[in-house]
Structure formats: C-alpha cells, structure tokens
UniProtKB/TrEMBL annotation:
GO terms for cellular component: membrane. Residues 120-143 are annotated as: Disordered. Belongs to the ABC transporter superfamily. ABCC family. Conjugate transporter (TC 3.A.1.208) subfamily. It is found in: Membrane. It comes from Adineta steineri. Residues 132-143 have a biased composition (Polar residues). This is Uncharacterized protein. GO terms for molecular function: ATP binding; ATPase-coupled transmembrane transporter activity. Keywords: ATP-binding, Nucleotide-binding. It is a multi-pass membrane protein.
Length: 143
C-alpha cells in the first residue's frame, strides 16, 4: 500500500500533461483508495489527461469515458450512462457484481448475527454457572 501511494505521489509531482495510471489503487484498502481517487486523481488531475486502468468499478461513474476490454480487445466504449443504458456486457457485468456484493453482504450479516447470538448464549451460560457457584459457597467457614 505504501509503495503504491509513493508511486502515485511521484507521478503527480512530475506535473505532466498526460498520466497513465496502471491500477494505482489496487494495493490500498477501500477508505484509502477512495481518498486517493477523489483527492489525487479527480481533483489534482482535473485539468490533465488521465488514463486510469483499474478493476475498481466504484469509480466508473466519475470517468469521462470508459473503455471495456475483454481478453485484450476493446469491446465497448462510452460514458457510464451510455454503457449502462445499452443492453451491453458492461451492464450485465455490473449487475453480476452487484448481485455478488449483495450475497456477500447477506452472508456477512448472517455470520455477525450468529457470532452475536453465540456470544449471548455463552454469557447466559456464564451467568448461570456463576449463580450456581454463588449458591454452593453459602455458609460459615470453620477455623
């Protein structure tokens, strides 16, 4: 992640007219990639030509033009809205990704709920054991 940020900073420092960025956001987490995209690429390079190669589809809506490649060949080109409105492989790809994210989100929610319920049941068992221990230790101690 740090190497990717340093390389992006070096590229921006050159103050060129054209930038070719080969997936600079892949080695950083979601929060950092969002910050880098909006502050570095979108804001700082707003008056430059920037070709961004990426697999991170969350930034596609901010692109001026999108080129969709399949096995090294260009299969589509257009704006985000043009590609979405056409019944294209791009639109189908986004639908598939959206469904996968929803399924993953549902699985994560179920996993969290099972962890929470098992934590509560362990807590209840612990309280029950502690109350049993308390009742067994009642009485006076002989000296």
């Amino acid at each position: 992640g740090q190497k990717a940020r340093v390389n992006l900073a070096r590229a921006l420092y050159r103050n060129a007219d054209v930038y070719l960025l080969d997936d600079p956001l892949s080695a950083v987490d979601v929060k950092v990639s969002k910050h880098l995209f909006y502050r570095s690429i979108k804001d700082y390079l707003c008056d430059k030509i920037c070709i961004l190669v990426t697999h991170q589809i969350q930034f596609l809506q901010d692109a001026t033009k999108i080129i969709v490649l399949d096995k090294g060949e260009m299969i589509q080109m257009g704006t985000y809205n043009e590609l979405i409105s056409s019944s294209s492989s791009f639109a189908h790809l986004l639908e598939d990704i959206n469904q996968q994210e929803q399924q993953q989100s549902a699985a994560n929610i179920q996993q969290q709920q099972s962890i929470i319920s098992s934590t509560y049941s362990e807590k209840e068992d612990e309280d029950e054991v502690m109350s049993n221990i308390d009742t067994k230790q009642q009485g006076a101690i002989k000296w």
